[in-house]
Specification:
Elements: E1 4-10, H1 22-30, E2 35-44, E3 55-59, E4 62-69, H2 71-90, H3 101-119, E5 127-131, H4 138-144, E6 150-154, H5 162-165, H6 171-177, E7 183-186, H7 189-201, E8 212-214, H8 221-231, H9 235-244, E9 248-253, H10 262-275, E10 283-288, H11 297-317, E11 325-328, H12 334-343, E12 346-349, H13 358-366, E13 374-378, E14 391-393, H14 398-410, H15 413-429, H16 432-443
Parallel strand pairs: 1-2, 1-5, 2-4, 5-6, 6-7, 7-8, 9-10, 9-12, 10-11, 12-13, 13-14
Antiparallel strand pairs: 3-4
Helix pairs in contact: 2-3, 3-4, 8-12, 8-13, 9-12, 10-11, 10-14, 12-13
The structure holds 6-O-phosphono-beta-D-fructofuranose (F6P).
């Protein structure tokens, strides 16, 4: 039987300290039966990178194969086309999109190099599963190398409607590149439908028909629940618990990104404090926000804006022995984070747009079934189409979000249990293994690539 080869932009090498995000954790779970994981090491080696160099590591049944990128690659491919063009546009932020032809060429160049290095490691019966927007043209490049393997693609972020996507320079080329895949997966039915509409508008609807689907990503729910139960004793969880002195905890955990709606969320929390006198001195909001992609100007601006809002709200409401917002620009390791989620009375997951948002799922899995917390969830997160026990809000509506925080803080135990139980049961029967199996069954061992070797 052939191997599963997972390809993603970043590959967290075993044994290296990593702040593995949801995508990395999910892909590690997808490889529980073994396979190969190929991608960028996360390292940059000047401008004279050895184009042929591949570093390999083995961890149990999983082989890791990574390459370094040159500074130019990182600038053009990662910070450029992937994160200044695709990322904003696919999150419906055409206003923030910037396009430069040389970034696009860098994006294609890195995909070509990945394909050339990966193709040497591929056996004829391997199944290749490509992840996320950094690597859309990878299958097209692999086909050019002569590969006829089954190749699937999964997009972790949203796909917008044709009106939004029409702003994408080289949009038709990108849509055409998807035709080299045997299966193209999205987080939600809406994303899949938007993609099909974009194809139809570009006159390419027929080519990918029946090869598009929604496969909502998930977490290892039971394992995360067990981790959270143990994590209550983690030194970081205990430190926080001691410092809370019985106050209720509201928690938000997001990469510093304009799609996450952290600024509006803080404003909503400020509004909640204003409207709820009993919260003063009794509720603490912890926002954990590691910085990312800091070379993209929007991210640095956002950092300043959020720090200002936190400072303003703390200035207005703090007392000598209480500060309402604790804002941390650092990563907290998964095993400790699980304990913090469990301790929280309210989880705030209010992105302006998000493919899925695995924090929402982890927050639910981490709860104590006897005394579960409440999830306040944006209607624009993919998770909202599954987690129907959450308090669903429009994150642009600060008053509505503030009211949901108040409702969550005051929610009676019976209602909390009822809402949580439905969501936890759903996560247990729709976990990351189910996600992987659904995708791999759909692409199927008997499936033969319908495309010519050279596209
Ligand atoms: O889910 C979107 C995504 O871009 C993933 O591909 C990535 O693992 C994660 O966000 C973190 O992004 P970055 O690698 O740019 O820090």
């Amino acid at each position: 039987m052939g191997r599963l080869i997972v390809v993603s932009n970043r590959v967290p090498l075993p044994g290296k300290p990593s702040d593995a995000g949801g995508l990395a954790v999910a892909l590690r779970s997808a490889l529980t039966s073994g396979g190969l994981w190929f991608g960028w090491s996360g390292e940059t080696s000047g401008n004279h990178v050895d184009l042929e160099a591949v570093k390999s590591r083995i961890d149990g049944d999983v082989a890791f194969s990574v390459v370094d990128l040159s500074e130019q690659d990182v600038r053009e491919y990662y910070f450029g086309f992937a994160n200044r063009t695709l990322w904003p546009l696919l999150h419906y932020r055409a206003d923030l999109m910037e396009f430069r032809q040389h970034d696009y060429e860098g994006y294609r160049r890195v995909n070509r190099r990945f394909a050339s290095l990966l193709s040497r490691q591929v056996r004829s019966d391997d199944l290749i599963w490509v992840h996320d927007y950094h690597l859309i043209p990878l299958a097209e490049e692999l086909r050019r190398q002569g590969l006829r393997n089954r190749i699937g693609f999964f997009l972790h972020i949203p796909w917008p409607s044709p009106d939004v996507f029409s702003a994408m320079p080289r949009g038709r080329e990108l849509l055409a590149a998807f035709e080299a895949y045997d299966l193209v997966g999205f987080q939600t039915d809406q994303d899949a439908a938007n993609f099909a509409d974009c194809l139809a508008r570009a006159g390419r609807g027929e080519q990918l028909k029946n090869r598009i689907g929604a496969f909502p990503i998930s977490i290892a729910a039971k394992e995360f629940a067990a981790l959270a139960a143990e994590a209550a004793a983690h030194p970081i969880a205990r430190k926080l618990e001691t410092s809370l002195r019985g106050r209720k905890l509201v928690i938000g955990v997001d990469r510093l990104d304009y799609t996450k709606g952290i600024d509006r969320r803080m404003e909503s929390f400020g509004h909640f404090l204003e409207k709820t006198p009993s919260a003063k001195g009794n509720v603490v909001y912890l926002q954990v926000t590691p910085k990312t992609r800091s070379e993209v100007p929007e991210y640095a601006n956002l950092q300043r804006r959020i720090a200002e809002i936190a400072g303003r709200i703390n200035g207005a409401f703090s007392d000598l022995d209480w500060m309402p917002i604790r804002y941390l620009n650092r990563t907290i390791r998964h095993e400790a984070l699980a304990g913090l989620y469990r301790m929280a009375a309210v989880g705030l997951v209010t992105p302006l747009r998000d493919g899925m948002n695995l924090v929402a799922k982890e927050f639910i899995a981490a709860q104590d079934e006897e005394d579960p917390g409440v999830l306040v969830l944006s209607c624009f997160a993919g998770a909202a189409s599954e987690l129907d026990g959450a308090l669903v809000v429009n994150p642009h509506d600060i008053e509505e979000t503030a009211a949901a925080i108040a409702q969550a803080v005051a929610m009676p135990l019976e209602e909390r249990r009822r809402r949580w139980r439905a969501m936890f049961d759903h996560l247990c029967s729709n976990d990351v293994v189910v996600w992987r199996e659904r995708f791999l069954n759909e692409i199927g061992p008997s499936r033969t690539p319908r495309l010519k070797a050279a596209v």
